[in-house]
Request: fold
Amino acid sequence: MDNLNFEILKVNQYVFKHRNELNKEIGGVIKKIRKNQNMSVEELSIRSITSPSYINQIENGVNGITLNKFILICNSLKIESREILDNFLLFKKIDDDVISEELQNGKSLSKNILEFMKKK
Reply:
């Protein structure tokens, strides 16, 4: 296994191990986008064909989000999925190091993933 594949494996293992924290961070991004659009939990739940309590659970990281609900929420917020996912991916494209780019741009990236990558 070459170094790049080994690094990807290490990051993926870290993300899997810390999935509960990642769920909270993904939910936080969804909540921030919803609030920036002045949309209530109730409105998002109606648009995404789910209950307000489930939206709250996602936003607070109590429940992970399924791919189906993720698509419904992105459509309901009228955003591209990358507006959420780019905050958490190591690579956007081949040889495009998101962490380096995010650090240079001062963007918010999962604090746990950033700390892990700084230590490697």
